[in-house]
Write a structure and sequence with these properties.
The chain has 103 residues and is of the alpha+beta class. Helices cover 46% and strands 20% of the residues. The mean pLDDT is 92.
Length: 103
């Protein structure tokens, strides 16, 4: 058997088990200044929500203080948070997005 391991005609296959990447929730936080229309615009532009889902989620954010916009890998979640905050800054709104590890 030891000779077979050294045989150049034998290819050993090594299996690597990959862990699933951790996922992160992106949440929008309610504030007293950002318009509801702008929140709906962000939900549609950044998170690809249709009109009905965007309105429903906007009301949830408004009433409960925060709402989950989606669950993504770390890099995508980080990019979505940065995009939301840049859009808000450019439009002079204090809208904030945060990310937290999904359980």
């Amino acid at each position: 058997m030891g000779e077979r391991l050294n045989d150049p005609n034998v290819v050993l296959e090594e299996k690597t088990k990959l862990d699933k990447p951790k996922l992160f929730r992106v949440l929008l936080l309610n504030d007293d200044y950002t318009t509801m229309e702008f929140v709906i615009f962000v939900l549609q532009a950044v998170f690809h929500k249709d009109s009905e889902d965007a309105h429903t989620l906007m009301w949830q954010i408004h009433q409960s203080g925060a709402g989950i916009c989606g669950v993504f890998t770390y890099e995508i979640a980080e990019m979505k948070v940065a995009t939301v905050e840049e859009m808000a800054r450019q439009n002079e709104f204090p809208l904030r997005a945060i990310m937290e590890e999904d359980e």
